[in-house]
Specification:
Chain A: This is Acyl-CoA dehydrogenase family protein. The structure holds two protein chains of two kinds. By secondary structure, chain A is α+β, with helices and mostly antiparallel strands. Chain A folds into three domains: about 110 residues, Acyl-CoA dehydrogenase/oxidase, N-terminal domain (Butyryl-Coa Dehydrogenase, subunit A, domain 1, Orthogonal Bundle), CATH 1.10.540.10; about 110 residues, Butyryl-CoA Dehydrogenase, subunit A, domain 2 (Beta Barrel); about 130 residues, Butyryl-CoA Dehydrogenase, subunit A, domain 3 (Up-down Bundle), CATH 1.20.140.10. Chain A is built from eleven helices and eight strands. In chain B, about 55% of the residues lie in helices and about 10% in strands. In chain B, α6 runs antiparallel to α9 and α8 runs antiparallel to α10. Classes of the chains: A alpha+beta, B alpha+beta. The interface between A and B is large, with 55 and 58 residues. Bound molecules: flavin-adenine dinucleotide.
Chain lengths: ~375, ~350
Amino acid sequence: MIFSPTSLSAAEDALRHEVRAWLAKTLPTDFRPGLGLGGRHDPEFSRALAAQGWVGMSIPEEYGGAGATTVERFVVVEELLAAGAPITAHWIAERQTAPALLRFGTEEQRRWFLPRIAAGECFFSLGMSEPDAGSDLASVKTTAVREDDGWRVSGTKVWTTNAHLNHFFVVLCRTSTADDRHAGLSQLIVDLSSPGVSVSPIPLIDGELHVNEVVLDDVYVPDDRVLGDIGQGWTQVTAELAHERSGPDRYCSVIGLLHSYLAEIGVPDDRSAAAFGRIAARLWSIRQLSLAVARSLDEGEAPATEAALVKDVGTIFEQQTVETIREIAALEIDPEGSMLQQLLAECVMNAPSWTLRGGTTEILRGIAAKALTRGGAR
Amino acid sequence: MSEIDELRDAVADVLRARSTAEALEAAERDGWAPDVWSALAEGGFATVAVPESAGGSGGSVAQACAVLEACGAASAPVPVAETGLLAGRLLASAGLSVPEGPVTTVASPGVSFSDGVLAGAVDRVPWGRSASLALVAGSSVVVVAPGSGVVTPGRNIAGEPRDHVDLTGVRPLESAPVGPDAVEDLRRRGALSRAALIAGAARAVLDLTVRYTGEREQFGRPVAKFPAVAAHLVQIAEQAEIAAMAARSAAEGAGEEGEPAALDVAAAFSVASDAAGAVATAAHQATGAMGMTREFGLGVLTRRLWSWRDEWGGGAAWAAELGRSLAAGGADAFWPTISRGLVASS
Ligand SMILES: Cc1cc2nc3c(=O)[nH]c(=O)nc-3n(C[C@H](O)[C@H](O)[C@H](O)COP(=O)(O)OP(=O)(O)OC[C@H]3O[C@@H](n4cnc5c(N)ncnc54)[C@H](O)[C@@H]3O)c2cc1C
């Protein structure tokens, strides 16, 4: 462990400024930033972004992408998240599904899905969690039964973000009752408009309706929608999670908040100056860590432990930032008040989920601890 | 392995046989560690980042910080930071050469220099009793011989000398006019040197704590197997990682010949100084009573972490400076400033 700092090349730095300039002219001036990947679901924005070549960048050119490196994608995604741009529509498809299709998909699936993802026209959700399977993902009960040249899937998925708006979701389910509970798992690509799929919202504490319960009742999934190999679902899912943990989404949720704090209040005294400076110092350091992980992925390494550490550090940073800004802003929060108050309200009510989604703090620390104690980390 | 990593390892190799538990005890008792010093000086490691024309070993700020990480990890009880990165570079910027032997320096706003004579005193001078002293006095940089003036011994929590030196009436060996940025540049390098030392020590604390908790058994298994103890290890690893990334990024930002940037140093020292406390707390919790003993060797590291985080103004003051400067830049400049990062020149 312990990465060295990485420099951006002049071309990578130019790309950052290009994205920044495009966002400045594309987003309205009174735009209310989303909290990082909690940005709005806006298919029109996703398509406009895709027209710039900035959706599915790391998809190879032959499948409609730009064949970009991890670092190039990092640069673009970081700018989008920092601006709080409405990226949610294409987010999972481009971050999670496209790389999974590239690694495990059939040629036919790649030819069909990847160009649509890169065009900002095909949106995915994640169908992993279930009522009885959270951190212990391998205990999923949703089951697919073999039928002719396909599968019949039944079960219940929960917390499925934007299932009511997206086109597909990748469902982790049981395809055999093997004794080894990891061996019987597979991933199926399910069309959310298929007969037998019913989506109902689960209201969250702030009253927002973006996560859902998705009930699958004998839903037909043809063989050509199996992702990867039957029985390999567990290996595939763990590979997906490890790679996507340490991206800029783990520290960018609060950039809009920091911006509006400076715009509305500034640092009137030493105490607020030190508190704000501390936040900035952490942010400055964590993004170097995250960038270093991206660079090492491009160099062919698989820094799973480091990625878990960065996610943990990043999400804890985000939560502490909300508390600190709230303290030094010293105001009562009205959710319809000034921009700072609106963002603070949203942050206070969403911050708990930052250390849950994508692997809880406790689970991440467990992964890191195992690596540390067996000397697995360099 | 990169050149920087090789340099760090080379210094670690030199220190392994010399910066031993016995040598550290002796240094604390005597206030000086001649063998550690001469090994580092002979290897040219004490004057990295000081141009060869000024009698140094040459090299970048990042290389000097790599040396300091290794010194921090080994608790090397000698003024390597002061001799090279701090005093050495200060002297070179005024066209002076680095004197033989250890050199020290400190911020010196209260010292004046006229008619060839100094007036005023400096406090908390690292190894002030044994090293030549280089200072900014008025618009000059001056060098005084070791032991000049009235030296009142003091020390930090780690038992490293931090002396009070009254220079009134002392005639410097040398002096030269110095540019307007010298004081500010020195202060930045001072803070950066502490960030690098902390990063090195934090890494050593991690190694020591992982090893001990993997061997110490209670309830029939190594204590590291208890999730609550493992969480301390992860906490130390995270803090060591972020401190090192911060210190290295700020040092790299100086390029081949330049000085580190204000924002980078403030961020790096703030992060490292917070990490210092967190690492020490978690390591002592995980190692129980054994970690509290003089013999075990955690204390030489944690006492340094607790000392270094407060030097050169301390992390909180640098955080406040960073906060004020970001606020002065305005809300729209915030993200562009933070994300500027390192950009390759070619
Ligand atoms: C806003 C939001 C959006 C989400 N979107 C999606 C989505 O689109 N698709 C999807 O599939 N999922 C989604 N999730 C679910 C998310 O992945 C789960 O919340 C997460 O995996 C944790 O599971 P759980 O909530 O059931 O908590 P549990 O697993 O029930 O955990 C409860 C507590 O026990 C702790 N714990 C559990 N096991 C251990 C252990 N072995 N060691 C130590 N502590 C342990 C946990 O850390 C936690 O503190 C979303 C969650 C949120 C909050």
